[in-house]
Design goal:
By secondary structure, the chain is of the alpha/beta class. It has 9 helices and 7 strands, in the order H-H-E-H-E-H-E-H-E-E-E-H-E-H-H-H. Helix 4 runs parallel beside helix 5 (130-142), helix 7 packs across helix 8 (216-224) and helix 7 crosses helix 9 (230-247).
Amino acid sequence: MTPEAGEQPGPVDQDAPVSPYAAAEDRDIETSLRPRRLEEFIGQPKVRGQLDLLLESARRRSRPPDHVLLSGPPGLGKTSLAMIIAAELGAVLRVTSGPAIERAGDLAALLTNLGPGDIVFIDEIHRIARPAEELLYVAMEDFRVDVVVGKGPGATAIPLEVAPFTLVGATTRAGLLTGPLRDRFGFVGHMEFYDPPELVAVLQRSARLLGVDLRPDGAVEIAGRSRGTPRIANRLLRRVRDFAEVRAEGIV
């Protein structure tokens, strides 16, 4: 019986070379390898094509696009696509995560400080606290937040306007999202594992950026060991590069 998308078959060392999770020491390098534009993004043709239409429509209407939900296993490019959406629209990107939003007030503070057209990226959105999620419903639909002042019968809800924004939510566990939250996303895209030719293309691009002499057979070998995940492919490329510089005259 195979695990569901995004689930691990057992305890996982998140810093291991074949873990799909981001390792702390690799984040700066990962950022340098991220595509900046949609045309640079490799793989996920269905999601990429739909996003292209969404963004072009938003540009023509001069309005923020619909809220976007990206689901799928870790390491497939959800964060990269959130950054690309902001870059394509020339918008400010505000980044947070579900576990970081513990109270409704945390989310209200973020939303009330947005500028028009800002992109809000919430990673692991399935882990957002329920009170904050309920506040998010109104913000996504009506661009306002209701801040409750006081307690008990004397409590008063004060509505505060929020600048029009686009929420990009990312989740590895789409099944844990509540129906009301999921229904408020106008665009839902599911990220699939990459096939070997797509991973080879990812590796070739990364090798150029890193200045690595990557032979075709080396790219195929690494791609075959990457579990369909670009993050793993790039991590293996960096590990193999280190070995090659010492033992193989820098040739992978």
